[in-house]
Amino acid sequence: MMRQVPNIAAVLFLGVLVAFPFVYTAGDYDYVMHVLITAFFYAILASSWSMLAGYAGQFSFGHMGFMGIGAYTTALFCHYLWVADAPTGLCDEVEIFGTWFIVVDAIGVTSSTLTQDCLREALAADPALSVGRMPVLLGIVLGTVMGGLAGFLIGLLVLRLRAAYLALFTLGFSEILKATISAEIEVTRGQAGLELPSLYESGITLLGTTYDKTAKLPPYFTMLGLLLLCLGILTWLARSRFGLFVRALREDQDAAAALGVNTTRYKVLVFTITCAMAAAAGAVQAHYIGIITPNLLFLLQMSLVVAMAVIGGVENFFAAAVGAIILQVMLELLRNSFEVGGYEIDMTIWRLVFFGLLLMITLRFFRNGLLAPMIEYFTRGHVAKETVARRQAAEAAFEAGREAGR
Amino acid sequence: MESPLLFWGVILWMIVWGAVGSVVLRRRYLHRDLDTTNTVFVGAMSGAALGPVGLAPLWLTTPKLGNLLIIAPALLTVFLIAVAFSFADPDNICVTSSGFVASQAVNGLIIGIIYGFMALGLTLIFSILGIVSFAHGEFYMVGGMLVYFISAVWLPGVPPLVAVMGACAIAFLIGAVFERLMLTPMYRGKIDRPVEYGILVTFGLAFTMQYFVQAVAGANPVKAQRFIDFPRMRWPEDSDPIWVKTSRGGVTLFEQVSVSNPRLIAAVTCVLVLLALMYLLHRTWTGKALRAVSQDRDAAAIAGINPDRMNMLAFALGGMIAALAGALLVQAFSWLPQVGNIPAMRSFVIVVLGGLGSLPGAFLGGIMVGLVEAAGTGCIPDAQKAASYIPAYGMIVLTLTLLLRPTGMFGRRFAAGTHGKF
């Protein structure tokens, strides 16, 4: 029975999360929903990072870079590709099955005047022209694939690198990506950011209720669904041979190779899968927020993901995900500044100081995180007792047998 | 750029032949059962420099890869890239003006000395504790902040020297206390994966320090006063061009190369402190003990050195070096709590390039990275883009080093001070 406590808790927690948007009706509904959506986003990143770092032992600091690849792929895709029913004659375009695919010129930030944006010019010249966006879902899928592909390539490159070198290399990758995005202003619009269509641009009808594109409920369930999907995939992987091999790789790469584990394949695979998850999360989040800037790739964001995973429990991705949700909600709750003896305490900054302290204390004194040991206590806490009891029983039987034999 | 196709064509040609060379030469040496340590690097460089012409003799004769064969193709590659660039973009200021090139080179050298000095702290920590300190940039930031606060807010009017020394002392203390509180369990084998633990816990320290400073000092940039004003002079009096001309804010050499006062002061101080550090490491008992621990921990312990005390000293000293670099540069740049990120990245690049744990490697690597950055910022035609790419130049160097020669220039293959595998 004890063993089922974490499962029951998980079902209850999930039940609360599913019921929450229907039950909660306070005035700050949109704000609370936004906090939760962001929490799910971080939960996906933290759990996939814990698979990469905790399970496979690959301490990558470039996870946010892969997230950024996903986000920027879909952003560029939705920004530059359009469909129309007739040729514009001004843009680069191709006809496929009667539909015209239009590639808009890259014009950067400073010049968004009519004469340089070929699509707007065409629309002004011909109001009858019907132009549509590419489907958002296709962009997200593309982003995920690109993230996975980048993860595959990086995984190939870092095969020979271990520990400290791996951390530095992935950090370097993330920094190069950020510098490139900030510098190539003509294409990515740099710090001005790229605008994206929202997840459900034309609204969506769920259970007879129609939600418009700014409603929080559809993205909430989209992100929650993605989180559950990722957790499901991770669980399936962890319980299969893959999980076993990857853990063997973490403990001792050479020994695992000697025992017949194809270390190259599993190292690359684990990179590909976790990076694709990060990219998917990034793509969905980018569409939900509606605008992305290179600031998404700041080291702070990576620090948050690492801290959430570590505080939850880096070797257990459920703990990492739940830890991320709880910490994100806590960080938002701690935002309120207050005054002590005339000094204004600016909690928007101080909460991060406490967060850092919590991270260090967790690392120092609770090496498996704060949540993972609790789960462990219920699922495996009885094992020690049972073993002792079994051993005592065996000993007693042995003693009894000896007594009888005398 | 006038003919970008030429330049990028040459680069592509180099990449292709470099990749071919690194793979083929390594296979060849493996096949002949020879030492493959440097094959990847030499293969890539001679392939990039000379293409098939460079690779064929190596492939046929498989010579012993000594220092000459390692250095010459690398230099030739750099030279060829420069030539290709000058042909592709003949109007560029880097090609037409030798004064500009000299100025960029001197400034690159000077900033490189400061980078190298900062990286020295990181490599000192690594060679003794076996961890990469992710809080190095934050020590740099704290050093600068402390100088500003001591000299402008807490004790207005104190001489800059006192402020700098105060900043160093406080940074030393922070490093020592952190090491005692957080890193000690690493040495007792209580932690399965000490390298990762070290990275994560210093990451936590960086996070805490950055936001602590932001909470206390606010997010507005601060800037310290110039430490010293140079006397105005020109020497020799009656020559043309004047060899050395100084004003309060800087020095001009041959009326071409100008170096600003704060950078020159910082570089000179760095060199002086470096000499003092070398004296400490090579001539005093403590320094010898430090080096002994970095070479072989157990043997040092047998010889009566307490390795734990050396750990504390190394971490504190490494942090102090970063803080000193920050303290010297706070007069040159405006200072923010986030200012440490870019120098930290640079230090990572430099220590990997020089070889993790190698002190001369860190210094030489710093100068090289300084020169690469000066070339990158000075020569790329679009100035705004060049500035945005500054963090990327070093990272490209890092990526190339890790791919071609992961031990770096002077890396020891088996650093005994490490607690884990690398």
Low-confidence segments of chain B: 414-422
- The Rg value of chain A, from CA coordinates, equals 26 Å
Give the helix/strand class of chain A.
alpha+beta
Work out the count of structural domains of chain B: 2
- How are the strands of the biggest sheet of chain A laid out side by side? 2-3-1-4
Largest interface: A-B, 44 and 47 residues
What's the number of helices of chain B? 17
Estimate the global geometry of chain B from the Cα principal axes.
globular
Multimer state: heterodimer
What value does the Rg of chain B take, in angstroms? 23 Å
Number of domains of chain A: 2
Pick out the low-confidence regions of chain A: none
For the record, the CATH class of the largest domain in chain B is Mainly Alpha
Major sheet attributes of chain B:
4 strands, antiparallel
Structural class of chain B: mainly alpha
Please give the CATH architecture of the largest domain in chain B.
Answer: Orthogonal Bundle
Report the portion of residues of chain A in β strands. Answer: 5-15%
Reading side by side through the largest sheet of chain B, how are the strands ordered? Answer: 1-2-3-4
Give the % helix of chain B.
over 70%
What is the N-to-C order of secondary-structure elements of chain B (H for helix, E for strand)?
HHHHHHHHHEEEEHHHHHHHH
Instruction: Specify the biggest β-sheet of chain A.
Output: 4 strands, antiparallel
Structural account:
The complex is a heterodimer of chains A (406) and B (422). By secondary structure, chain A is α+β, with helices and mostly antiparallel strands. Chain A folds into two domains: 292 residues, no CATH class; 44 residues, no CATH class. Chain A contains 15 helices and ten strands. In chain A, α2 packs across α12 and α5 runs antiparallel to α11. Chain A starts with a helix and ends with a helix. The relative contact order of chain A is 0.16. The mean pLDDT of chain A is 81. With 422 residues, chain B is mainly alpha-helical. Chain B folds into two domains: 88 residues, no CATH class; 283 residues, ABC transporter involved in vitamin B12 uptake, BtuC. In chain B, 71% of the residues lie in helices and 4% in strands. Chain B has a four-stranded antiparallel beta sheet. The radius of gyration of chain B is 23 Å and the shape is globular. The two termini of chain B are 42 Å apart. The C terminus of chain B is likely disordered. Classes of the chains: A alpha+beta (406), B mainly alpha (422). At the A-B interface, α6, α12 and α14 of A face α8, α9, α14 and α17 of B.
